[in-house]
C-alpha cells in the first residue's frame, strides 16, 4: 500500500507570505501545493456571480457541489504557478480581484462552507499522486490538518505585509493597502484565530527574512530523508 502523503500545514494572516512560501516549498519538494484560500475565493466568485445568498441552504449546497468538483480535479503536483480551473474556465486571475477579496468573508464565515471545503481538502490530500502536500490558509494547522507532520504559523509585521503587498500589486498607497489587510484580518479573525500558534505549531516571523530564507528554515524542520 502507498505511504500516506506527508503534510506541511502553513497558516498566517493576509500578506504574511503563505502562498509564496508554499509555492517555493512545493516546487523544491515536488509536492502538491494546496492553496485553500483560492477555494474560498472560488466560492465567493461563483456565489457573487450567481447571487447565492449564503443563508439559502439549497443554493449554497449546489454552489459547494460545483466548487467541490473543481477542487477534486485539481491534483496537479509540481505545477507552479498554480492555475485554478472551474468547469474549464481559468479563474486564476478573477479570484484575486479586490472585489473578491472584499466579499470572500461573506462565505468563509459560514460553517457549512468551512466544513464542506475542509472535507474536500482532506479528500484531495488523501488521494493525491504527490508524495506530500503543502497546504496553506488560516485554520490548516488547527482544523484541517491538526495532525500534519509539520505545522508552521507565518507572521510578519503589518508594515512588512503592507509593503510587500503594495510591491506585488505595483501600488503606491501603502497606507490604503495596510487598511485593506487589517480589515480582512479583522473579519477573518472573527472565525478562526490565526495569530496565536496552537500547541506544537512552530511560529516563524518572516518580517526580516527573504522568501528564500523562510523556505530554507521550513525545509530544515523536515526529517533529513524528506528534504
Ligand atoms: N519573506 C518574504 N520577503 C519578501 N517578500 C515576501 C516574503 N514572503 C512573501 N513575500 C511577498 O509578499 C507578497 C505577499 O505574499 P503572499 O501572497 O505569499 O502572502 P499570503 O500570506 O499568501 O497572502 P494572502 O493571505 O493575502 O493570500 C508577495 O508579493 C510575495 O512575493
Ligand atoms: N483556510 C482558510 C483560507 C482562506 N480563508 C478565507 O479566504 C480568504 C482568502 O484567502 P487568501 O489566503 O487567498 O488570502 C481569507 O480572507 C479568508 O476569508 C479561510 O477562511 N480559511
What does this structure look like?
The chain is globular, with a radius of gyration of 17 Å. It has one domain (7-219): 3-Layer(aba) Sandwich (Rossmann fold). The model has no long low-confidence stretch (mean pLDDT 94). The chain is α/β, with parallel strands linked by helices. α2 crosses α3 and α4 (98-108) runs parallel beside α8. β3 and β4 form a beta hairpin. Helix content is 50%, strand content 13%. It has helices at 18-29, 36-49, 57-72, 98-108, 111-127, 140-144, 158-169, 174-189, 211-220; strands spanning 6-11, 32-35, 85-86, 89-90, 132-137, 150-155, 202-205. 38% of the residues are buried. Adenosine-5'-triphosphate binds next to α1, α7 and α9. Pfam families: Cytidylate_kin (PF02224). It is an enzyme of class 2 (transferase). Its main location: cytoplasm. Keywords: ATP-binding, Cytoplasm, Kinase, Nucleotide-binding, Transferase.
Name the descriptors.
single chain, 227 residues, alpha/beta, Rossmann fold, five-stranded parallel beta sheet, two-stranded antiparallel sheet, 9 helices, 50% helix, 13% strand, globular, binds adenosine-5'-triphosphate, binds the ligand Nc1ccn([C@@H]2O[C@H](COP(=O)(O)O)[C@@H](O)[C@H]2O)c(=O)n1, ATP-binding, ATP binding, cytoplasm, transferase, dCMP kinase activity
